[in-house]
Amino acid sequence: RDWSSDVCSSDLYNTAMGFQAGIDLTPGSGNTLLGWNTNAIGTASNNILIGSRAFPVSSSGNVIIGNNDSLTTLPTLTGGNNVLVGNQITNWNAASSGTVVIGNNFNATNTQYTNYVIICDGAGNRRLTFNANGALQLNNDFGAYGNVLKSRGESQSPYWSAYANPVSGQDSFQSADGKTITIQDGIITSIT
């Protein structure tokens, strides 16, 4: 797009390449738009959009890399500071902000994500998620309070399990530094 012919003179440092890239951008600044119909809208600023039909944005600080097919209706992102990397990220809630999504074919089910990190496989299945509180979710399961993560080796995914007293049948044991640790009903009651 050639911004030199625009009436608005406040469009600064925008770079657009591709058919209709940045066609609705006035008077945004600092945007990089690469690909067919990659669009920043209105006063959007400091966005990087790469890919055919990458999500349109009207906010700032987004990095979006990936293609969307022409059959997908894309919301205009109003939340800022998102990083979306992957093709066909669908049903994205426009108000989501501060969220990182990596993976193809992720269906966000119109959930508003704020300060999440989501990693998906190529089929769009969530494999790893950290929510805004920093809680870890594996394979769509946050586990329950007090659960521990157990490994099943490299052939199966880990899972959440109820805590089991590792010194079953014992009331106390010696730590590596010589302290006595006393356990009552699976709870550490003293360290001496």
Describe the structure.
The structure is a single chain. By secondary structure, this protein is mostly beta strands. Helix content is 0%, strand content 26%. The chain has strands spanning 15-17, 32-34, 48-50, 63-65, 83-85, 100-102, 117-120, 126-130, 136-138, 148-150, 159-161, 172-174, 180-184, 187-191. The strands form three sheets. Strands 1-2-3-4-5-6-7-8-9 form a nine-stranded mixed β-sheet, with no helix packed on it. Strands 12-13-14 form a three-stranded antiparallel β-sheet, with no helix packed on it. Strand 8 and strand 9 form a beta hairpin.
Shape: elongated
Q: Biggest β-sheet, characterized?
A: 9 strands, mixed
Given as residue ranges, the uncertain stretches (5+ residues, pLDDT < 50) are 3-9
Oligomer: single chain
H-E string: EEEEEEEEEEEEEE
| Beginning-to-end CA distance, first to last residue | 72 Å
Helical segment count: 0
Q: What fraction, in percent, of the residue positions are helical?
A: under 10%
Q: How confident overall, as mean pLDDT?
A: 85
Secondary-structure content class: mainly beta
Strand content range: 25-35%
- Total beta strands: 14
> Widest sheet: strand order?
1-2-3-4-5-6-7-8-9
* Rg computed from alpha carbons, rounded to a whole number of angstroms: 24 Å
